Amino acid sequence: MSEEKSKVLAVGAHPDDIEFFFAGTLAKLRELHPVRHKTSNGVHRDAARIYMLTICNGTMGSEELDWRELRETRWKEAQESAALIGAHYESCDIWDLELDLDRHKAKDILVGQIRQIKPDIVLTHTPKDNYMPDHRVTSFIVSDALFCAMLPNYNPGRRTSEIRTRREIESNSEGYRYKRRKSLPLPALYYGDPFPGFDMFGEEQKPTFLVDITSTMKVKREMLLKHKSQGAWLKAGHRDSDYIRTAMEWNKKRGKLVGVEFAEAIFAHKGTPYNQEPRLENLLGDSVKYIESK
What we know:
Blueprint: E1 6-12, H1 17-32, E2 37-38, E3 44-45, E4 48-56, H2 67-83, E5 88-94, H3 103-117, E6 121-124, H4 133-150, H5 166-170, E7 188-191, E8 209-212, H6 217-225, H7 228-237, H8 243-256, E9 263-268, H9 279-284, E10 288-289
Parallel strand pairs: 1-4, 1-6, 4-5, 6-7
Antiparallel strand pairs: 2-3, 7-9, 8-9, 8-10
């Protein structure tokens, strides 16, 4: 992988979810693998390509804005956040809290994206997330889409007539169109923390490893700050007066587990059929920290 461009796809349920769970890690990847570097033959190429995709459009997260205003606001905020680390942002544009009803459509749009991007590494919500339904459904949709994308005979257009993302629709792009090809190798799959670090039964979850994000916590904060509409919503709807402080306290607590100031927890999917190479760990190098066994 060191000689190839690594493609990292982070999938969240809503705009700002990726930032809460993975922004520090994605920023660390960008820090360690700058957008442009010179290869042995003198050609400038990307060291790591980062893709951020949200399944839902975030239309339920406001007390002030109606769904039309909020859809546009959150689309703009997410693009501005992704731009801070040179990532490409997309959305399946599924309505909030209707994801379980539209899971086949979301899965098929995602299959198209996976086949076009061909990611080496995928990051998404843990299936143990107990915060809200869209998070849990997203985890299973990502896993399903990865498996379906691998199958040459799986045609997402058979069930869903429109399998384009929001950007593809608005740019009049044809987007993905099914053509039978050889099997697509499955990437390494990773999950983020169940917020706030334990499952619905209060059981603390021990991550596979943690990522030292001390040097990129400032970037994470800037990415979260782009989601101004969510700052207002979390304050009004969840009585969280400062969502930035909440994120920093959470990452500080995780950092204490491995003796660093700030860290994000990562859980690797173990077992078939996903790639078992430590791909993310290799890219992150010394930033990867393990909890010492007692």
